[in-house]
């Protein structure tokens, strides 16, 4: 018996199904955190479904799928949609030495993928420096046991993630711009640190929720000012909406929100930023970028990906012209893939309702894991506030406990003394509704 697996990119130009023997499901898979997976997609990790019987003739290669070839040794080819940029397939030289090719499909474009794979390990966690997306999935278990985290491939050194701790101040006080670069390096930008003067944007830039609610508060919602830090942080958010996943090929997408005037073009080798962009920004001015507009999305939404490697780069919306959503997977922050000296992660996942029905271990783990993300970044003051909240909770608990003991004691007392609760005789008073007087005690 075979199970037909439906595969479709965001724009549906590449839609096909592949039969997989039902007995082989769920197929073993790993969560890959390697530099190539992050920089080719813009996400923090990727997961693939192995396709044991696939060959190059199984797919529309070269027509609606464009190739991005690995720099080193040309052993790996990634295939993405020519129209929307979704990463769909990867082929590489088979590990068994037969000279054949191995194919995998990226789960972001696979319908109901959580039921088709069994996650066995995190791999290439060493590439992330800070644990990257593995730290966003701390509660992810494989068959009842903690999933192993490997520094590189399966069988390499095991990694144990340290508990969250504050970043060394050297990362926070650094003033050098951040390199934001895709795998093929055709998209290469510099991002400057936010400061108090960056809060004033030349155009209105309402938050995603303000866009729909017409509330236009002047607060810079995209900026977090932590009192203990010399600089503020950009807001970052993990999104699991169907558009983001089918557009990137990854199971979730991490966006940061940055003002255009802090972004500039960089020449990959130099560390000095060239001139910054001015709003309203037109990413079409970058030769390396290809734009995609979906007729199902609001008409002012546009996504941009790298023509060379398919990495998602920007999500823009005309209504907040001074800000762009920038893919976090392209950040090359010294402290690690989560870039916590630059970003304050929102402790919730966006558009969980999109995956509610198909949610399995990985997405459940992500939703739970995001609640604790970045706790190492919070200040002593914030930690104290949490402690005080916990203490208040304890006091409330004790109050309820002693109150209950009091009531029980009172009840037992009455039982022992055979004395019922005092009731005022009902004929002693009446309530008159006619003249609005509340309670009138009958004169004796
Ligand atoms: Zn497409
Ligand atoms: Zn990888
Ligand atoms: Zn690229
Ligand atoms: Zn999204």
Topology:
Blueprint: E1 2-8, E2 15-21, E3 27-32, H1 35-41, E4 46-51, E5 65-69, E6 76-81, E7 87-93, E8 101-106, E9 117-123, E10 141-142, E11 145-146, H2 169-173, E12 178-181, E13 188-191, H3 208-213, E14 223-224, E15 233-239, H4 242-248, E16 253-259, E17 263-265, E18 289-292, E19 301-306, E20 312-317, E21 323-327, E22 343-350, H5 361-370, H6 380-416, E23 429-430, E24 440-441
Parallel strand pairs: 3-9, 15-22
Antiparallel strand pairs: 1-2, 3-4, 4-8, 5-6, 6-7, 7-8, 10-11, 12-13, 13-17, 14-15, 15-16, 16-21, 18-19, 19-20, 20-21, 23-24
The site of one zinc ion (ZN) has 9 residues, from loops.
Written account of the structure:
With 444 residues, the chain is α+β, with helices and mostly antiparallel strands. The protein folds into 3 domains: 2-135, Metal Binding Protein, Guanine Nucleotide Exchange Factor, Chain A (Beta Complex); 175-208 and 216-384, Metal Binding Protein, Guanine Nucleotide Exchange Factor, Chain A, CATH 2.170.150.70; 385-438, no CATH class. The chain is built from 6 helices and 24 strands. Strands 14, 15, 16, 18, 19, 20, 21 and 22 form an 8-stranded mixed sheet that branches. A 7-stranded mixed sheet has the order 5-6-7-8-4-3-9. A hairpin with a 2-residue loop joins β10 and β11. The chain is globular. The termini are far apart. The model is unreliable at 213-217 and 376-388 (pLDDT under 50). The structure holds zinc ion (4 copies). Residues 32, 34, 36-37, 124 line the site of one zinc ion (ZN).
């Amino acid at each position: 018996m075979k199970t037909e697996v439906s595969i479709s990119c965001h724009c549906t130009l590449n839609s096909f199904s592949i039969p997989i023997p039902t007995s082989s499901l769920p197929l073993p898979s790993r969560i890959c955190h390697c530099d190539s997976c992050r920089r080719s997609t813009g996400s923090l990790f990727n997961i693939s479904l192995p396709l044991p019987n696939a060959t190059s003739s199984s797919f529309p290669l070269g027509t609606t799928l464009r190739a991005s070839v690995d720099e080193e040794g040309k052993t790996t080819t990634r295939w993405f949609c020519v129209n929307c940029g979704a990463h769909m397939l990867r082929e590489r030289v088979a590990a068994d030495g037969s000279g054949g090719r191995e194919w995998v499909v990226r789960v972001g474009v696979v319908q109901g993928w959580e039921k088709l794979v069994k996650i066995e390990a995190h791999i290439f966690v060493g590439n992330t420096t800070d644990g990257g997306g593995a730290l966003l999935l701390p509660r992810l278990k494989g068959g009842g046991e903690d999933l192993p985290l490997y520094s590189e491939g399966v069988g390499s050194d095991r990694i144990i993630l340290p508990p969250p701790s504050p970043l060394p101040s050297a990362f926070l006080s650094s003033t050098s711009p951040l390199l934001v670069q895709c795998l093929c390096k055709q998209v290469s930008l510099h991002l400057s640190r936010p400061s108090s003067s960056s809060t004033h944007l030349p155009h209105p830039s309402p938050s995603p929720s303000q866009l729909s609610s017409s509330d236009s508060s002047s607060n810079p919602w995209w900026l977090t000012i932590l009192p203990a830090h010399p600089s503020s942080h950009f807001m970052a958010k993990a999104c699991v909406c169907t558009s983001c996943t089918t557009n990137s090929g990854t199971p979730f997408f991490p966006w940061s929100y940055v003002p255009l005037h802090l972004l500039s073009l960089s020449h990959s080798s130099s560390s000095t930023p060239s001139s910054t962009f001015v709003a309203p920004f037109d990413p079409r001015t970058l030769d390396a970028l290809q734009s995609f507009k979906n007729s199902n999305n609001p008409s002012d939404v546009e996504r941009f990906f790298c023509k060379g490697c398919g990495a998602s780069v920007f999500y823009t919306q005309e209504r907040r012209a001074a800000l762009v959503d920038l893919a976090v997977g392209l950040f090359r922050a010294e402290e690690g893939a989560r870039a916590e000296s630059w970003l304050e992660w929102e402790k919730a996942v966006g558009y969980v309702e999109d995956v509610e029905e198909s949610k399995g271990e990985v997405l459940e783990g992500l939703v739970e894991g995001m609640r604790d993300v970045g706790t190492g970044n919070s200040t002593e003051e914030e930690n104290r506030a949490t402690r005080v909240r916990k203490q208040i909770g304890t006091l409330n608990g004790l109050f309820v406990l002693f109150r209950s003991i009091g009531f029980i004691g009172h009840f037992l007392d009455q039982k022992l003394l055979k004395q019922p609760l005092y009731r005022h005789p009902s004929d002693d008073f009446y309530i008159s509704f006619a003249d609005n007087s509340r309670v009138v005690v009958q004169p004796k």
